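Kindly inspect this today.
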Amino acid sequence: MHKSYKPIFFSVLIALFWMIAPAPRLWAQMGSIEGDVKDENGAPIVGGLITLDRKDIKAHYEVKTDKKGHYFHAGLPVAFYKVSLVLDGKVAFFLDNIKVPLADVVKVDIDLKKEKERAAASQPKLTKEQQEAIAKQQEDMKKFGSMKQTFEKGMELKGVAEKLPPTDPTREQTYLQAIENFKQAGELDPKQTAIFANLAESYRAIKKSDEALESYTRALTLLVEKPNPQLEANFRMNMGIIYGQADKFEQAQSEMQKAAELNPQIASKAFFNMGAMFENKNKIDEAAAAYDKAIAADPNYAQAYYRKAICLTAKASVSPDGKMVAAPGTIEAFQKYLELDPQGQFVNEAKSMVDTFSQTVETQFKAAKQPAGKGDKAAKKK
């Protein structure tokens, strides 16, 4: 008996149909994108990378343009995309929120020439004055870049020179190289206080006093527009030291006094420097007065007490009965130093001076003589 296979065949056919039937429904949720890409001269861009990034979720697709500058990408889920042209690893242009339609192709051309023209047309025309202002701004930025580079080179050289001992033969030459860089930076931007401050410090380090004072003065002039009391105080104190080294005591005192008034926090240091300046020139009274000012500004300034005591030591006298008489305040100054800095550098010297002023000193020494009685008896025996 012959059996019919038709029912079996149709059953298999129907099963296969239902297995492949969902595929068209899936493809129906997809779309495609294509377009032509041209450079700023209107020529096709060959091998340009087109990236497609979904906006709703993180999904990334890529395609390159062909020899005609054309690109095509199918099978994209229906969504909004950011379409970017990437040249040499950088995004040259992009279009945002491009919708890929259902079962259709969206055409997205990129013409850099037209985009450039469109951008230029959308910008307002600048007046001659505005164009000149922009040109000046660009030139200023260029100068600033050069100034910054030159200044930083000067700072580098100055830092090297500061670490060299004074006896090193390369020290002065290194400072001179730093000075040249600071001078060039000052020519590029003459309104930078830091340039002239570091120029002054470099001149001062190699004992070029006139140049250092001139540079500090230039820096002070710039601070008129942008006041900075602490910075000005530092400049004036350094100027005071330079004037003192040149025996210009009136100018030195004036600058130190201004430094103390501008920044009370460094007043004690300013007056101490003034005292050291006078002391080095053997102006004892003036030095002691300056140390008193340093102590008034900072009652715990141990070194000021010691230097004051040393100055007063020079005013000691000897009494008729052979006592070393200290000038008023000498012993107290030494004792205060010992109290404030019991492990200080000059502790032994201070203790020795206190002991000296506390003892009787014979200023005249008489030759030893026999008692008068014995002498008389010896004479009688003869």
Remarks:
- The beta strands are 30-38, 49-54, 60-64, 70-77, 80-87, 90-99, 105-107, 110-111, 317-318, 324-325.
- The CA atoms of residues 280 and 287 lie 9 Å apart.
- Residues 300-361 form one domain.
